[in-house]
Design goal:
The protein has about 325 residues and is of the alpha/beta class. It folds into 2 domains: about 90 residues, 3-Layer(aba) Sandwich (Udp-n-acetylmuramoylalanyl-d-glutamate--2,6- Diaminopimelate Ligase, Chain: A, domain 1), CATH 3.40.1390.10; about 150 residues, UDP N-Acetylglucosamine Acyltransferase, domain 1 (3 Solenoid). About 15% of the residues lie in helices and about 30% in strands. Strands 8-11-14-17-20-25-28-31-34-37-39-40 form a 12-stranded mixed sheet. The chain has a 10-stranded parallel sheet with strand order 9-12-15-18-21-26-29-32-35-38, with no helix packed on it. It is flat, with a radius of gyration of 25 Å. The chain starts with a strand and ends with a helix.
Length: about 325
C-alpha cells in the first residue's frame, strides 16, 4: 500500500527534504529504483549512482546530501533507515491458525489455537507451541520441546528433545537444534559415547540460518542469548554460551564449552577452539583461528593462529615485500664475494 514520504519519515526517523506528499510503495537499489521506490546511499563511493537513479526518495547521510536534487531523507545511518523501510513494506506473511491434515501431533502436546502447523510436521509428547507460532512443512518438534510466542520455523527444522526456543525467533530450513554433542571417552583405543544430557536454550529475537547445527549440552545447557544472529551452516558445539546480540557469519565452527560475549561479530569460516572466553564487543575476522581467550573489544584477524588485526596487516605488508628483500640480500651477498 503506498505511503507518503511525510508518513515514512516518522517510521525511519531523520529529516525529510523534498515533497512530503510523494507516494512510495517499496524499496529497490539505486540502479533499479523507479519513482515509487525508496533507495539508499550507504557508501559515499556510489554517490554518482544517485544522479542516475529514478528513485522516488533516497535515504542518505547528511555529509553525502550536498548537491542532490531529489526527495531525500537525511539519516544518521542510511543502512538502518533502509532496513526500517524494507521491513515496513515487506512484513512476514500472516500466520493462518490451524493444523495440516498430514501433521502428527501427540495427544500430550500443547498447541496454541493461534498457531499454524504445516504439512508433515511432527510434534512430540509434552511439546509446547506458543501463540502465533508458525511451524512450516516437514518440521520435527520432539518431546518436551518449547517454541515461544510468534516464532517461525520455515521448513524441515528439527528441534530435538527438550530444546527451548524463545519468542519472535526465526529458524531457516534445515536447522538442527539439540542434536548430541561430540562427546566420547577413549577406552583402550575405542570410543565410548558420553550421554549428552543438557539442552539447548535459545533466547528471544534470535535468527538461525539454514543448515546450522547447535549441539545440546553434555551436562549444562548450550545457550544462545537474546538477539543473536546466526548465518547458514554454522556448527556450535556442546556447552557453548553465546551472549546477546552477537552476529556470526556462515561456516564458523565453535568448539565445546567456549563462552562468547555479547555484541561480538565473527566473520565467515572463523574457527574457535574449545574452553575459551571471548569478551564482549570482540571482532574475529574471516578464516581466523582463535586458539586463546580474548579480552573485551579485541579485534583479531588472520589464519593460524589469529592475531591482533593491526599486527596481521603489518605481517601481510612484510610478506608482500619478501621477494624484493630476498633480491636485496642476494645482491649484498654477491657484493661481499
Amino acid at each position: 500500500m503506498p505511503v507518503s514520504l511525510e508518513r515514512l519519515v516518522t517510521i525511519t526517523g531523520g529529516v525529510l527534504e523534498g515533497d512530503g506528499n510523494h507516494l512510495v510503495d517499496g524499496v529497490a537499489t539505486l540502479h533499479d529504483a523507479q519513482n515509487h521506490h525508496v533507495a539508499a546511499l550507504t557508501n559515499s563511493r556510489y554517490k554518482r549512482e544517485v544522479e542516475k537513479s529514478s528513485a522516488g526518495c533516497i535515504l542518505v547521510a547528511e555529509k553525502d546530501a550536498e548537491g542532490l536534487d531529489c526527495n531525500r531523507i537525511l539519516h544518521p545511518d542510511p543502512s538502518l533507515g533502509f532496513a526500517m523501510v524494507s521491513r515496513y513494506f515487506n512484513p512476514p506473511r500472516a500466520v493462518v491458525p490451524g493444523v495440516a491434515d498430514s501433521a502428527v501431533i501427540d495427544v500430550t502436546a500443547t498447541v496454541a489455537t493461534s498457531a499454524e502447523i504445516g504439512a508433515n510436521t511432527v510434534v512430540g509428547a509434552n511439546a509446547v507451541i506458543g501463540e502465533g507460532v508458525y511451524i512450516g512443512p516437514g518440521c520435527m518438534i520432539l518431546d518436551n520441546a518449547i517454541v515461544g510466542e510468534s516464532s517461525r520455523l520455515i521448513a524441515n527444522v528439527t528441534l530435538c528433545e527438550g530444546v527451548e526456543i524463545g519468542t519472535h525467533c526465526l529458524l531457516h530450513p534445515g536447522a538442527v537444534i539439540g542434536s548430541d554433542g561430540f562427546g566420547f571417552a577413549n577406552e583402550a583405543g575405542k570410543w565410548l559415547k558420553v550421554p549428552q544430557i543438557g539442552r539447548v536454550v535459545v533466547g528471544n529475537l534470535v535468527e538461525i540460518g539454514a543448515n546450522t547445527s547447535i549441539d545440546r549440552g553434555s551436562l549444562r545447557d548450550t545457550v544462545i542469548g537474546d538477539g543473536v544472529k546466526l548465518d547458514n551452516q554454522i556448527q556450535i558445539a556442546h556447552n557453548v554460551v553465546i551472549g546477546a546480540h552477537t552476529a556470526i557469519a556462515g561456516l564458523v565452527g565453535i568448539a565445546g564449552s567456549t563462552t562468547i560475549g555479547s555484541h561480538c561479530t565473527i566473520a565467515g569460516e572463523a574457527g574457535i577452539v574449545g574452553h575459551l572466553q571471548i569478551g564482549d564487543y570482540c571482532h574475529i575476522g574471516a578464516r581466523a583461528m582463535v586458539t586463546r581467550s580474548l579480552k573485551e573489544r579485541s579485534n583479531v584477524s588472520g589464519g593460524v593462529p589469529a592475531v591482533e588485526s593491526g599486527l596481521w596487516r603489518r605481517m601481510i605488508a612484510r610478506l608482500r615485500r619478501i621477494d624484493a628483500m630476498a633480491d636485496r640480500i642476494s645482491a649484498l651477498e654477491k657484493m661481499k664475494k
